[in-house]
Amino acid sequence: MTDHALRTKRPKPLQRSLPYLLTFPALIALIGILYPFILGVYYTFTNYTLTEPGNIQWIGLTNYIEIFKNIDFWNAFSLTFVFAGSAVMIELALGLGVALLLKDAFPGVRILRSFLIIPMMIPPIVSALMWKVILLPTDQGVLNHILSVVGIQPVAWLGDSATALISLILIDVWIYSPFAVLIFLAGLQSMPKEPFEAAQVDGASSWFMFRKLTLPMLKPGIVLVTLFRLIDSLKVFDIIYATTKGGPAGSTMTLHIQSYFEAIRWFRMGRGMVYLFVLWFLCFIFSKVLSRLWTRVLVR
Amino acid sequence: MTKSRLFQRILKILGLGAYFTFALGPILWIAMMSLKNSNDVIASPPKFIFTPTLENYKAITVGQHEQNMETVRPDYPKYFLNTLIIASATVVISLLLGTFAAYSLARFSFRFKEDIAFTFLSFRFAPELMIIFPLYIVFQKAGLIDSYSGLTAAYQLITLPFLIWVLRGFFEDIPREIEQAGRVDGYTWWGVFSRISLPLVRPGIAAVVILSFIFAWNNFIFSMILGGERTQTVTLGILGFIGYERVLWGQMAAATMICVIPELILAFFVQQYIVRGLTFGAVKG
After folding, report:
1. One-character DSSP codes across B63-120
2. ipTM associated with this complex
3. By the CB < 8 Å criterion, does A281 face chain B?
4. pTM
5. Lower CB count within 10 Å: N or C terminus of chain B?
6. Do B282 and A294 touch (CB under 8 A)?
7. Residue A200 structural domain
8. Into how many domains does chain A fold?
9. Is residue A288 in some structural domain?
10. What residues 214-233 of chain A have any CB closer than 8 A to a CB of chain B?
């Protein structure tokens, strides 16, 4: 009798372990990911060289000290931030502008909105190759050809260390600005109408309404775009690999690309992993800060 | 219409015109390039008017032997098939592993739940090579380099966190009352899951399947490091047209079109879920 009463109160063992059982297969996969990650962190403290895989020695912080003393690292470090910072800011501004233009219904707006997904669904490496063709130096490139019509001299774009990074930012903006547009569009369309109507009755200017109503209500979207775009541009790889591979003269050598050169081209796996660990740490910090900010904005 | 309204409208049309020329122009240019013959494609200045030919498509699919021209990349169909195999297998495995995990994270409360969920998410924000390089060494020892099973396992990193997070959101959208009603009717959790919840998230499953397929399809860095001659994928194949020894713009353009058109068609079917997918379920639209 008492036994029976107890059993109905407490969940059955199977039911208690059910959530774990269901998550278990995915957890195994998770461990499969965590293991290489930890192995990678271990390699940062070793002299692991791809040409001598049998001879791994613990060398403590030597890799870190050497790399932090090296000007190449700080070059890559600042290039990564210049690239990510500029790309994110342009994508936020352009995304907001285009979203505002696409907010209200007009004939053809649905088709234009669905066109937005095209650049995002193409493999980034392929998009970068497409742009490489368009940005060909001299008059062979179609962009230079179009610019020559308005009297602008041909630019070497990806081939010149002065313009290579700007060209890469342009490619990043091309691929990912639709992402910002779509998120801002979703935000703009879910806004309540009443505050805007009230402001209009009070005779507020549209600039005032944009600043005091639209922007504050768009905050979750802005944080979200920044979160995804900032992290993804900090760890940009594909579009640089397809176009400049870090050149010319190291002008597009970001941390992720540099790690590839260290580990694969120069066989120094230990050093390559240091670059990656630093990059991972940066991405981790920013994603933590931004996702916390995002949940706070949402709650309010 | 007042003068300023007219002015605004003109500005709007100009703005949208400029943006969409920028967004669609490159694709139209590549589509044009894919239809140019080998002389037109390298013409300087570039040609806007030319006689279209299917020669590039022919060269990369069935190959061609014209005069002294050899078949240059007849193995593009193989790359296409490789990608199809790897991406499909990846999505199927992710779906099997991830659906239950997503349901469990959405519906049950248990210890370490949020920690587990966030660990999955954190890999979305990690630089890929941080995992791929050590994985490369593990794969080398296990003999998994350039194997379909190895790549499918590694690709889980792309699709599994995505699938779990987005699908979790879809399961959370189901009102709890519906599931409770099922329990009252005497269904076990499995009955509730398979007869009530799963059919309700069918559109969500379709969306994550298509999107994770596209993400797997589009991947480059995994197959570059962990793949090889046997398992080469389309993204690597397309890059192969532009090398130090040869630059085959026309064939590259045709290969791009063949790679991209099927996935664009797929993407248009799940358009309404794309924002939700790309933000890992954060924006529900």
Report:
1. ---BTTBPP--TTHHHHHHHHHHHHHHHHHHHHHHHHHHHHHHHH---TTHHHHHHHH
2. 0.91
3. no
4. 0.92
5. N
6. yes
7. 71-254
8. 1
9. no
10. 221, 224, 228, 231
